């Protein structure tokens, strides 16, 4: 393996693979001069997991061997990044040190179940579920099918998360499941956030839906402890500091998350722990040979694959300009899309920019939940993900 590459990409997730494919199609000279560093055996279509958890998609269809999604013409180092030195322009991965001219950081976001006392050891038993770990998503639907009475409690942390509205997707589809099966079950939603959704156009409808469906919901309530064997969840009121215990038959946890801890002493992170890049050009605020996109970046938008779809083509143009010794001139406006299933078969498609202004792609009113949007997410999105976005063709 070479010791030096024109471009090194850290992470072979949505952002890393799509960026590599796009760079190769824009500049053929980069063939065999791009290295992707990624330790996993599989690549995951994570937006499918809430659908698996509600029985609408098969788990196996949400992953492929990493070797099958690696672009032809890149080199793959199957190791975990251990250190980055942006001054020497080198990366330590496993026991190797590799050098770069340019670096794209696409390491994603880290899940922090350990921030909730008792959570990690409770997962996958006693009704404690999560849709954020591949091996546990089937347990969500298995558990739902066995709940007969009591509370289904859905949680969302105060921290930034990926798949921003996946908790609400589970909440609404499970509410419908419970009503269809005439179960004596209450749906309870506890969110650490201080708002239902940051864009008024969509939050109005979501709040109305929560009220109409009779869902017991409260904001600024952070899950701090899981007592799995007693089937109790403990929430901290972020306003008063009081603790509240809620009994559950089923608990669906979206864990707190944070930026890539492996970069902590690299000088690449901002004070909140995200890779510090310009919100428009995606070039690093200190090191002009470094770019970042996706969940690991400081870009102040929802952390979604749909945001990567908008960011990646702009980042690639800017990176090519930098490789040509020019200043990056292309600008990302923060556009992202959040699909929110309000029941099986209906979905709100929120699309907006950095200013939280709706930026919708269709002529329909996307704050109304529509059958068409649901079908798009369930049937079209996986195809577009594997065969367009990942291939860099957006
Ligand atoms: C439950 C759920 C529901 C979601 N729903 C939606 C949705 O409906 N719509 C939508 O658009 N998005 C959704 N998302 C979010 C979407 O999947 C992410 O925003 C997207 O994958 C971000 O791409 P990324 O490349 O930044 O991170 P990832 O795709 O997570 O990739 C990061 C990669 O970095 C690798 N990595 C981590 N640490 C290291 C290391 N030390 N060294 C080397 N490699 C490393 C990882 O193995 C991984 O392959 C959802 C996510 C989840 C989990």
Question: Which helices and strands, and how do they pair?
Answer:
Layout: E1 4-10, H1 14-26, E2 34-37, E3 42-44, H2 49-53, E4 63-65, H3 66-69, E5 74-77, E6 81-85, E7 90-93, E8 96-105, E9 110-111, H4 119-122, E10 128-129, H5 137-146, E11 149-156, H6 166-180, E12 184-191, H7 200-212, E13 216-218, E14 221-227, E15 232-237, E16 243-247, E17 250-252, E18 257-258, E19 290-292, H8 305-323, E20 336-343, E21 346-352, H9 371-389
Helix pairs in contact: 1-8
Bound molecules: flavin-adenine dinucleotide.
Describe the structure.
This is NAD(P)/FAD-dependent oxidoreductase. The protein has two domains: 4-109 and 259-334, FAD/NAD(P)-binding domain (3-Layer(bba) Sandwich); 111-257, FAD/NAD(P)-binding domain, CATH 3.50.50.60. It is of the alpha/beta class and 394 residues long. The strands form six sheets. Strands 1, 2, 5, 6, 7, 8 and 19 form a seven-stranded mixed beta sheet that branches. It is 26% helix and 26% strand. It has helices spanning 14-26, 49-53, 66-69, 119-122, 137-146, 166-180, 200-212, 305-323, 371-389; strands at 4-10, 34-37, 42-44, 63-65, 74-77, 81-85, 90-93, 96-105, 110-111, 128-129, 149-156, 184-191, 216-218, 221-227, 232-237, 243-247, 250-252, 257-258, 290-292, 336-343, 346-352. Bound molecules: flavin-adenine dinucleotide. Flavin-adenine dinucleotide is lined by residues 10-16, 37-40, 46-47, 49-50, 80-81, 106-108, 131-132, 162-163, 166, 262, 294-296, 303-306, 308, 339.
In short:
This protein is of the alpha/beta class. The protein has helices at 14-26, 49-53, 66-69, 119-122, 137-146, 166-180, 200-212, 305-323, 371-389; strands at residues 4-10, 34-37, 42-44, 63-65, 74-77, 81-85, 90-93, 96-105, 110-111, 128-129, 149-156, 184-191, 216-218, 221-227, 232-237, 243-247, 250-252, 257-258, 290-292, 336-343, 346-352. Bound molecules: flavin-adenine dinucleotide (FAD).
